[in-house]
Amino acid sequence: MPHPATDSRRIAIVGGGPAGLMAAEVLALAGVQVDLYDAMPSVGRKFLLAGKGGMNITHSENIDGFLSRYGARRNEIAALLKAFTPDDLRAWIHGLGIDTFVGSSGRVFPADMKAAPLLRAWLHRLREAGVRFHMRHRWQGWDADGRLRFATPEGEVAVPSSALILALGGGSWARLGSDGAWMPLLQERGVALAPLRPSNCGFDVDWSEHFRSRAAGEPLKTVAASVTLSDGSILRRQGECVITDAGIEGGLIYALSAPLRDAITPSAPATLHLDLLPDWTAARLLSELQHPRGARSMSSHLQSRLRLKGVKAALLRECTGTEDFHDMHKLAQAIKHLPVSLRAARPIDEAISSAGGVLFEAMQNDLMLRRLPGVFCAGEMLDWEAPTGGYLLTACFASGRTAAQGALRWLGERPAGKENTP
What we know:
Blueprint lengths: L6 E8 L3 H12 L2 E6 L7 H6 L7 E2 L3 H6 L5 H10 L2 H10 L4 E3 L4 E4 L5 H13 L3 E3 L3 E5 L5 E5 L2 E5 L3 E4 L16 H5 L5 E7 L3 E2 L4 H7 L3 E10 L5 E10 L3 E3 L1 H5 L1 H7 L6 E6 L6 H8 L8 H9 L3 H9 L3 H4 L2 H9 L1 E5 L1 E2 L7 E6 L16 E3 L13 H22 L10
Parallel strand pairs: 1-2, 1-10, 2-6, 10-20
Antiparallel strand pairs: 3-5, 4-5, 7-8, 8-9, 11-19, 12-15, 12-18, 13-14, 13-16, 14-15, 16-17
Helix pairs in contact: 1-16, 4-16, 11-15
């Protein structure tokens, strides 16, 4: 049986992803009545889809390395993670009866690699704690009396609340509920927002038809990629990516997507540099290329001496001029530093996540909006971004806890029975 709330006041949470569910848990366990609303037929839809390839929940690297993944918002995310660390998140999962393990890459996964058992156990605990779920309720803002407006299949309803936590997601994967439709609702209330942009995304490349028809769908394995940052430093990552009909995508590209996206302008593309043989030194590479090839074709020579073939060889030809291709010094340089011109980021709805949203400067440290006292924001709707690898989920969980704790303090400072009216 659900545990009855010990506080007569109600907190509404809009959004049933990790941030909203974590906020609901903190509040319900504190004895507050929690009503959670979501536009979808069920909660955690993006969470479940993200776990289809293996539920990467967090990362085991040291905290300094972990925080470095949040770029310009490192300090703001650090404040959230100080109260709920990656280790705390792992312990919390264990408390749901779900074991975890650390993969060879340092990523942390549930023992069965699945998201569904974790979500089921979590929802059971939330219902036992008295959280009430209201599905197919799409938030429409506030009415004249400050009540929350929701569009439902039965028509519009208005709901009073003592405080409100918004955890509505960003702008990626709209079919799962993260469509950014909340942006104008906050903007018209004077909340400072940054435009939503794709993050952890692929990019468009103007491939030749010859290359596209032969290489689309082919993986590029064991390569390194680098991008020159605005301060002149070089960010380099090693991994895998995929050639697509439109361009290039995959984990290696996602890890560099933020600086690549920001480098693209209407008049100039961004340049991604690929190292097709990252385990080879430049000197060894040149020595092998200069080995006499006799009557063999260049393709045979590359395959014989460097084991460079397939999509890698095709990409080398695609991005190297004919003259450079027959100059062994220039060819060696191209193999280690192959320029790929990225014309545009793929659309935000294809991205794994999004950047932009509610500015941290528009909130207090407890994530309450300065312009709307009693209204808190959490999760991906805040203006931060991180690569895949557990960093996104960890910050979402931590922000949900911070917002809930802020809402509890807000309730403690207000007389019982007084509803919130932004």
